[in-house]
Design goal:
It is a single chain. By secondary structure, this protein is of the alpha/beta class. It has 19 helices and 12 strands. Strand 2 and strand 3 form a beta hairpin. Helix 5 packs parallel to helix 17. The radius of gyration is 40 Å and the shape is elongated.
């Protein structure tokens, strides 16, 4: 009897041990399948999250998922107290209506209840909003053009040397040159120090000589005649200062122009993209960007859609990585999300995004219409934005060495940048004219004392004589010639 009880006890114990071993093995297998995602925690709801592999949103590193969206998902889970399991979308698509009327990609998985939410760079569109719900956008973006800097060599203008200054600046410079030469001519005639006897001797600072003097200063060359009067020297010194600063600004901006990549990018807008024929362009097949151009009433956008639709098999790409690689290796321009293009331009320094961005939009988290998580996730996204966490994530995943080495965009110098220089020249010209009037007044006062005339009459007579000196000199020369004859 005792042997029988002992045998039964051993059998029961063995069965219990075998059952526990099987349960432990099953648990370990489940953990292995959930590697790279946060497993369910006791008492917390578990959400199935669908996403797509795209740098830097979701990437595979050391058999685990990481990236902007993964960090965002962790922050949302900590705020709303849920666990999650991440799965990559099966067909590698974002979500569009197929030929049979069904949705593909992450939107299709949400509709088929294969996933609870989609956390990815998923653009909020009206078509998608009709079948699923979106939270408040966690990233703002638009549609831009990604190009290789040397895709198209822009023809250099014959007058490329004028590019450092804008047209307004060149106009202001010409006006300043003529005005300065005229003031130089006028002050030299008014100042008594520039001639010994105005009635008999021609002044050296004629208008042509004044123009030559100003041009010589622009070339940093000393020319004659040399100024003698203080008033003339004031104007000459201010003009020299003006020309030195102007030449320094011209040389610096011209150097920046030669080393900048801006002149190598003739495609600045979508209209420029349509007009040229050297560069092919396309976008992601089935993406919201493609349907944006399809539904747009803008003539330029319609031309872009017709171009891509006719060459669908050749210009449309399947993945974002394929698009970037194609831009780098061929004459191809990629039309897509501007925020993703900024990252590509930052990581590949030979790429850049064209200035124009259209179709402002945002990336949101997709849920089913009946989901209770939509409002909760929206509020959590707003809190992360207000706390600065979204900005931190943006800086974390978009920070690269290429961004630190990139140059500022070059642009011609506008008159506002040289406003202080033109103002200094104007003040110098005014001081020179005032000094010349003071010198002539002193001369007139002394002459009035000797001739016993009023100072104003002598001043007026001196000014008229100096302003008509050329005519008087010719008359004196003709009279002397007749007398000698």
């Amino acid at each position: 009897m005792d042997k029988g009880l002992h045998f039964v006890f051993c059998v029961v114990t063995t069965l219990l041990l075998l059952r526990e071993s099987c349960q432990t093995g099953t648990t370990r297998n489940d953990d292995a399948m959930s590697k790279g995602s946060r497993g369910s925690e006791e008492g917390l709801p578990t959400l199935t999250v669908t996403t797509i592999l795209e740098d830097p949103y979701v990437m595979v590193r050391s058999a685990e998922l990481e990236g902007y969206c993964i960090d965002l998902l962790k922050a949302l889970a900590a705020m709303l107290h849920f666990s999650y399991k991440v799965k990559v979308v099966g067909d590698g698509q974002y979500g569009a209506v197929s030929s049979n009327g069904n949705w593909t990609g992450m939107i299709g998985e949400i509709l088929r209840r294969e996933a609870d939410i989609a956390v990815a760079p998923l653009t909020v569109t009206s078509a998608r909003e009709e079948v699923v719900s979106f939270t408040t956008p966690f990233l703002q973006t638009g549609i831009g053009i990604l190009l290789r800097k040397d895709t198209v060599s822009q023809d250099v203008s014959f007058f490329h040397f004028l590019a450092p200054f804008s047209k307004e600046t060149w106009t202001g410079l010409l006006f300043a040159y003529v005005l300065t030469c005229f003031c130089l001519f006028l002050v030299a005639r008014l100042s008594p120090c520039e001639w010994n006897e105005p009635k008999n001797e021609e002044n050296h600072f004629t208008f042509l000589n004044s123009l030559w003097f100003g041009a010589g200063a622009l070339a940093l060359q000393g020319v004659t005649p040399r100024p003698k009067a203080l008033s003339v020297r004031v104007i000459a010194a201010v003009w020299w200062l003006f020309t030195i600063a102007l030449l320094a600004a011209y040389i610096a901006n011209f150097t920046a122009l030669l080393t900048s990549g801006t002149e190598q990018l003739p495609i600045q807008t979508f209209e420029d993209l349509v007009k040229q024929r050297k560069v092919e362009f396309g976008t992601l097949d089935g993406s919201s960007t493609f349907y944006f151009f399809k539904n747009s009433k803008n003539p330029i956008h319609q031309m872009i859609y017709e171009y891509m639709d006719k060459r669908r098999d050749h210009v449309l790409v399947k993945t974002y990585q394929e698009a970037v690689q194609r831009v780098m290796e061929s004459n191809y321009a990629f039309i897509g999300e501007s925020i993703s293009q900024d990252l590509a331009a930052a990581r590949h320094c030979n790429l850049m995004r064209a200035p124009e961005v259209i179709g402002a939009r945002g990336f949101g988290i997709a849920t089913t219409h009946a989901s209770l998580w939509t409002k909760k996730l929206s509020i959590a996204v707003l809190k992360l934005r207000e706390s600065g966490d979204l900005d931190y994530l943006r800086n974390k995943w978009w920070e690269t060495s290429c961004l630190q080495k990139s140059r500022d965009r070059w642009s011609p110098l506008q008159p506002q940048a040289l406003g202080g220089l033109f103002l200094t020249l104007a003040i110098g010209l005014a001081l020179g004219v005032i000094a010349a009037v003071v010198e002539l007044s002193n001369r007139s006062r002394h002459a009035a004392g000797h001739a016993k005339k009023s100072c104003c009459s002598v001043f007026t007579e001196e000014m008229c004589t100096r302003l008509r000196i050329k005519e008087n000199t010719r008359q004196s020369q003709e009279t002397s010639g007749r007398a000698n004859a």
